[in-house]
Amino acid sequence: MHLLNHLLLLAYIAIKSEALVAPRIKREIPSRTSSPSKALCAIPDDHNNNEHEQEEKESYLVEVAYEGRSCKVNIRADETLLSGLERNRVPDRLAVPELPSECRRGNCLTCVGRHQDQSHEASLHRADDGLSPEMSRQASRLGYILTCSSHVVGEGLKLELGENHRAWEDLYSQRLYEESTQSVSRAAMARTIRRSDERNPKRWAVETENALEKSGDQQ
User: CA distances (Å), 14 to each of 9, 19, 20, 24, in order?
Assistant: First the structure.
């Protein structure tokens, strides 16, 4: 009887001890539903604000026009002008199918725009445009800009987009009628004729005789 009472007392003490310790252990174990990664990955509001302010400092307001319609967009300094226009959905805002562009290296002139009156040209940085140095200088003198290889570095830009046809006319077509181009063309034609005659001496002799006869008849 003594032994039974002693065993019951030990069992009672064990049950009471477990009841007292368990809540304390439960409080010390973190909840499985909590996500420690959230606490580690949380970014302070101040940091977000600083990033936003930095982004605002590095973007500039640019006014662009296309076929009589215009809008103003913010272009970041770390992107090309063409990328910024596409990011701002300028084709939708100007009601055009797309902004003309092809090579995105600056040497096809498809993406050409032009400075409007009172545009602050110094606010645009021209990167390597893929053109010859002389043609690049001429394009700059005429106010043309290549949107795919240019970066905005300041305020006050006013640009007319879709100037590729005019740029082709000014930079390429007009050169065909310049005296220097005509001289090169005549020299190339003369070389071609001479090489052809050298390969066909008999034909050259016949043509020369005919030319001399005609020259004598005319005299």
Answer: 9, 9, 10, 16
